[in-house]
Specification:
- The protein is α/β, with parallel strands linked by helices.
- About 35% of the residues lie in helices and about 15% in strands.
- It contains 10 helices and 8 strands.
- It has an 8-stranded mixed sheet, with helices on both faces.
- Helix 4 crosses helix 5 and helix 5 crosses helix 6 (about 160-170).
- The termini are far apart.
- Bound molecules: thiamine diphosphate and iron/sulfur cluster.
- Thiamine diphosphate binds near residues 101, 102 and 130.
Amino acid sequence: MNDVTLPSAAAAAVYKSGYKPIWCPGCGDYTVLNAIAKALALLGRPAHEVAVVSGIGCSSRIPAYLSSYGFHGVHGRSLAAATGLKVARPELTVLVASGDGDGYSIGGNHFMHACRRNVDLTYIVMDNHVYGMTKGQASPTTEPDWDNKLSPGGTGIRSFHPLVIGLAAGANFVARAFSGDQNGTAEIIAQAVRHPGFSFVEILSPCVTFRPEQREWKQLVRPAPVEPTDDPVRAAHRVMTDDGFNLGVLYAGNRKPYAPSTAPVRKTVAELEAEFER
Ligand SMILES: Cc1ncc(C[n+]2csc(CCOP(=O)(O)OP(=O)(O)O)c2C)c(N)n1
Ligand code: SF4
């Protein structure tokens, strides 16, 4: 991974829309945006051949800041929209941007089934273990003992483990990145896009406003001490036994992507209705 030559800032800037992000100063999502732009420049896909689909949340604002096609949709439904788009327009590179609330709470069911279906999408989740946009409620990845005024003493509820769920459900590529490592994140996103099937990239992206203690993540992250595996059981064991701060590609599988036929239906509506009535 380290021998990759990353594109210049000017090459990456082509993928930015020019709209100024309205995230809080210091939010991890700024560098995720830069990393996506760099990854697209690295891949050399023209912006008009790329679509970025999102739900709702601070993290889901990303499509507006990119020059590719974008769809800022409905909370928790980014994968449903992206799946339809990719199936209808397989020639597009489709990225999906989400947060841990959007992607694992209201969108949790779609997450599991997107992994299972294995449509060729790259799913990027900016995980800050909190609902940032709605001012700091606990999310599925919040630690059970996170004490704050909305859940005094912590929720006491076990955290969701997205990487293990993704592996168990059939994601074909699983990686963890950190927003503070912009170049490393760009390389991982580029690899995820190149890998066929459903690629899931968890990006630890601090919410400096509601989880200021996450600024310490930069001291905790490290490259995973192992090479990626194509064995989901081994990968699941690794991610269940690490402390959540090992970065890199953790699993690269060989499942064939789901690609339904896009041939036009040749029957008329009248013929379909007649068939239905039989
Ligand atoms: C159907 C629906 N339910 C709830 C909301 C309110 N809502 C907007 S964003 C959000 C959570 C966002 O959290 P996350 O996905 O973690 O993103 P972040 O803001 O932290 O990047 C919620 C609950 C909504 N917009 N629509
Ligand atoms: S509330 Fe948190 S996630 Fe949202 S922009 Fe601010 S720092 Fe980022």
